[in-house]
Amino acid sequence: MTWRMTVTLSILAAALAVSGLAGQPPASAPARGTAATPRGGVYEPPDRPLDRRIDPDKVTEYDPPPLPQRLIQPMPPEFRLAATPQEVPISREHWHKAKQAIDKGLVYLDSTQEVNGGWLTHLHATPTDEPDTPSAIAVAVTALAIKAYAQARPELLGEMRLILAIRFVRSAQRADGAFEGGALTNYVTSAVVMALATIDRRDFHEELQDATLWLQRSQWDQGEGLSPRQDWFGGAGYGNQGRPDLSNTQSMLDALHEAGISPDEPSVQRALVFVSRAQNLRATNKAAWSGNDGGFVYTPANGGESFASDAAGEGQYGERIPAGRPRSLRSYGSMTYAGFKSMLHAGLTADDVRVRAAFDWIRRHWTFDENPGLGPQGLYYYYHTMARALRAGQQHIITDIDGTEHNWRQELIDAVCARQRPDGRWQNPADRWLEGEPVLATIYSVLSLQETLKPVIQTQ
Question: What is the pLDDT of residues 76-88, one digit of tens each?
């Protein structure tokens, strides 16, 4: 038994206790493709009043989606790059192009690391719904940088600069298991969990377990008096006051997936409820604002928000839609890939109506030129989320709505490499969500390229 398996079993046992399910026998993890159903406790009613941090006048209520009758184990996380081009379905030319771009990106990151081991230690980010609480993001950025180095060349972890980076990250862990990030603690802790899982060392066992349990405890659910009928249910968000959103929730699910949490664990299935409510799909989303294109919005909470609606001049909440037109919210690229990936991590099958609808949206809006619905805003976040989602989907060739076939790995490599600067960095002229900061844009780009070079499991 590997130490990672030991960590996973320890986390799962503790998670069952957190969920009030410790008295039930744990379900064994099925092999990929075999049937499973969610454990109990997902839709049980709350046994306490609504948390005072939640404004009941803003929360909307409607039926949640039905629980899936069958789950499959998602593709397991992969933390290393393929050793040869033959292990990946791309040309040798694209293999070398991506490898060279990754190496140049890491050289740029070498030059920007600070003496304490961190990156961007003086930079603060502002949560979308808590503009008065800017928070430091250095721990999250440093954790993602560590992940990029560890995936490219794990032997680098023995060098002093990476030892300092790991020490910088570990020093931020709080007594409750989270990694401090102010209002951004969910993002920060999720990033650190993914970095620790990638490093894969026994001496990080307790830190990884404690952080993973914090993510599950901090989910908005019955523990805060929420009913499954309420639109906050199952999500993760900013700080203690901020309503949940799909970006935070997909970060949490990424971390749980890489820590080895099974999709039938109740916290994952509660998150799936929230993710499903962020989808424009009337078959499973009964929100009044829901359309039917299969794409995703930023959050269903508090009646729903979409940055794409705002970009289209209709207002983030759809409040500027002309009189006489029903209120609706627009889907956009980065959130649709986030939703698609999250549903796969939560164990939904390829024939689930939600997965099919999201994939059809992707086929209709196939592009590497922009973040569909937002143009250049969030482009590198889009690339990173897209790469992880498409790899999770396990289709090497995507056929768009017009019947054109696309090798997504090769097209992503071409698009990302074309934007690399001579000194190895990437930078978004549309400086939103800190992508004008080259360190963050470079980390997103390196991680995106690494997804294209991870080995593909060959099946007969």
Answer: 999 999 999 999 9
